[in-house]
Structures are given as structure tokens and as C-alpha cells.
Amino acid sequence: MQCLERGTNEIEVTEAILNGSHKQAKQGRLEYRYDFQFNGEWQGRSYSIKRVSPIIAESEMEIVVITVYTFYF
Fold first, then answer.
1. Termini Cα distance of the chain
2. Is the separation of the CB atoms in 37 and 48 below 8 Å?
3. Most exposed residue of 19, 30, 32, 60, measured as fewest CB within 10 angstroms of its CB?
4. Which domain holds residue 63?
């Protein structure tokens, strides 16, 4: 699963979709954003905030996560 390669997991992605802000993305998709308190190290650098930003496609029957971006601040 690519989530682990990007420093996040399914629980955080779900929380971002349920509790984050969203905006329109390309091709009729939605981009969600949710900031987590991180206070940790990622790839040798220290960060206090981790933003999880899933891109989803939504239909009447399901939500499909297309990709997930993770940003550290």
C-alpha cells in the first residue's frame, strides 16, 4: 500500500476524508486536507505537522481513493 511509503495509513486517510476540508480537484475529483499534530521525524528531518491529502472519486455507491499526498511542516 502506498500510504506507508508516504508516511500515512488508512486510519489517517479515513480521518482526513471524514473531518478535513475539501475542494474540487481535476477530473471531477475531490481533494481533502487534514493536518495532524506530528512532532516526529520523517526522512531524517523533524516536523511538527503532517498534512494528509487524499484525492478521491465519489459515486453514489462508493468512494475510491485515487492517491494520497502527505506534506510535512
1. 23
2. yes
3. 60
4. 2-72
